[in-house]
Amino acid sequence: MKILKRLWPVVLMIVAYVGVAFLSSVVSVSMRNRDMFLLLIIVSLGALALFIRIGNRYRIELFNLKTLTWKTVGLSIGIFFLSRFGMTFLIDILPQETFKNQDSIEQMFRMSNVWWAFIAIVIVGPIIEEVFFRRVLIMYLFEEYAWVGLILSTVLFSLAHGATTLTEFVVYGYMGLIFGITYMLTKSLECAILVHMLNNVLSFSVMAGWIR
Fold first, then answer.
1. Are 181 and 165 a contacting pair, CB within 8 Å?
2. Which of 23, 53, 155, 206 has the greatest count of CB atoms below 10 A from its CB?
């Protein structure tokens, strides 16, 4: 089965990310580094380098800037703004609760340099997450069953953000679904990254007190 044949590089990417994260955490502890966002940047860039290496080995094209056109970028920005109405609706109807993942990020933010935090949350995070959850899962592993890949990537994206309650699962799942739909409609990983970045820069601006 084609999916099984393509599973190995996906496993390698998971192992690569976990391995880089473990080594970085060991170094961080030994150096008593308190800036976790800087560590997150190092982990993500290290994992991305390995992703590219694995992608080249198995002929997986991760990036294609040619897919960035006025049409795809315009569609992506439109999807982002429309998605905000959906998010507002979900927040209004779902049980109100504190998001554990968001709490952890805010605690890290208070101990970190604001620009390290910005780079990690707004730039590096969206790139590494979209490469794995959208490019690798949807269009590589499930190339012939893209909608199955979309559902799986949405669920895993939510779980990867520590979702344990209905509200957390729905909210993070909704965001993952929006990023996945953007990718499928535009056929552009870069557009999915753009929408993810726009979402994160909005959240970051609120957290940093830049907007209310």
1. no
2. 155
The pair of structure tokens assigned to 158 is 């939510």
User: In the structure encoding, which two tokens stand for residue 123, read together?
Assistant: 């730039």
Contacts of 140 (CB under 8 A, 6+ apart): 6, 9, 10, 60
Answer whether residue 204 shows pLDDT above 90: yes
55-106 pLDDT per residue, tens? 999 999 999 999 999 999 999 999 999 999 999 999 999 988 888 888 888 8
Eight-state DSSP code of residue 173: H
If you average pLDDT over every residue of the chain, what do you get? 89
DSSP string, 41-97: HHHHHHHHHHHHHHHHHTT-----GGG--HHHHHHHHHHHHHHHHHHHHHHHHSPP-
- Mean pLDDT confidence for 44-58: 92
**Distance, CA of 1 to CA of 48 (rounded, Å):** 28
Interatomic CA distance for residues 105 and 99, integer angstroms: 10
Q: What does the pLDDT read at residue 69?
A: 97
- Dihedral sign, Cα of residue 100, residue 101, residue 102, residue 104: positive
Q: Count CB-CB contacts under 10 A for residue 167.
A: 18
- What percentage of the chain reaches a pLDDT higher than 70? 93
